[in-house]
Design goal:
By secondary structure, the chain is mostly helical. The protein has helices at residues 3-13, 22-39, 50-62. The chain has three helices and no strands.
């Protein structure tokens, strides 16, 4: 499990829950992990729940890219202006 979950879970569970037995503890911990990983807002996700954030990513991936969002490579350097000499002088080996 992620460290953030463990710290958050420990803080909430410390004073709230008494486990009856090991199977009960497993059920409660699994429910807490599911809540943390799907329903609870996270600051790293702009305070969105992970499930909502995943849906926005899926929607963004599914839509077609606009013309300016092309994955085609762009030229790194602009072509030389008209009238500029682009001929290179030969270099002698030495």
């Amino acid at each position: 499990m992620q460290n953030g979950f463990v710290e958050s879970f420990n803080g909430r569970m410390r004073d709230e829950t008494m486990f009856r037995n090991q199977p009960h503890a497993r059920v409660v911990i699994a429910a807490g992990a599911a809540d943390y990983n799907t329903d609870r807002p996270h600051s790293a996700l702009n305070y969105q729940a992970p499930g909502d954030y995943a849906r926005t990513l899926t929607t963004a991936i599914a839509r077609p890219a606009a013309q300016d969002e092309s994955s085609a490579r762009r030229a790194i350097a602009q072509p030389a202006p008209t009238g500029v000499n682009t001929n290179r002088a030969p270099v002698t080996a030495g």
